[in-house]
Amino acid sequence: MRKLFRGAAALATSVVAVVALSASVEAKPVDAWAGCPDGAVCIYPQNQNPAVKPSHVFYRYGAHNLINQFGNHWVLNNQYGGATANLCTGTNGAGCGRPIAAKTGVYADLTPINSIRLNP
């Protein structure tokens, strides 16, 4: 009977240790930057300075049309591997300005901007 109780106590201790260890692991991206997940390009609400919580998050390469974005916004490129992003005055990625390098951001007036393009 003592062996049974010792075995049960050892098992209970092991279960508690596993639960305690697994509870300390968070599911947050390692390289989140100002709320922008790793691998994404984020646009923040107008005049949010510093950038805290994005209003738009883009992961897919290509053009993304923007609607009702006026005034100054942070645009953070939290992509990796040299991937860039462009702010474009035309829709569907036309008339793009200088690329925003990976792991950098710009504070830009989005009034004339109608799309953003993510490039590999």
Describe the structure.
There is one protein chain. The protein has 120 residues and is an alpha+beta fold. Helix content is 18%, strand content 27%. It has 1 helix and 7 strands. The protein has one helix at residues 2-23, and strands spanning 41-43, 56-58, 62-65, 72-77, 84-88, 104-109, 115-119. The strands form 2 sheets. It has a 4-stranded antiparallel β-sheet, with no helix packed on it. Strands 3-7-5 form a 3-stranded antiparallel β-sheet, with no helix packed on it. It starts with a helix and ends with a strand. The relative contact order is 0.19. Mean pLDDT is 83; it is low at 4-28.
List the helices and strands and how they pair.
Layout: H1 2-23, E1 41-43, E2 56-58, E3 62-65, E4 72-77, E5 84-88, E6 104-109, E7 115-119
Antiparallel strand pairs: 1-2, 1-4, 3-7, 4-6, 5-7
The gist of it:
With 120 residues, the protein is of the alpha+beta class. The chain has one helix at residues 2-23; strands at 41-43, 56-58, 62-65, 72-77, 84-88, 104-109, 115-119.
Distance between the termini: 65 Å
- Written as H for each helix and E for each strand, in order along the chain, the element string is HEEEEEEE
Average pLDDT for all residues? 83
CA radius of gyration: 23 Å
Spans with pLDDT under 50 lasting ≥5 residues? 4-28
Q: Strand order of the main beta sheet, please?
A: 2-1-4-6
**Helix percent band:** 10-25%
Structural class, judged by helices and strands? alpha+beta
- Major sheet: 4 strands, antiparallel
Oligomer: single chain
- Which range does the strand content fall in? 25-35%
Secondary structure tally, helices: 1
Beta-strand segment tally:
7
Coarse shape = globular
Keywords: Signal
Protein name: Peptidase inhibitor family I36
Organism: Streptomyces amritsarensis
Signal peptide: 1-27
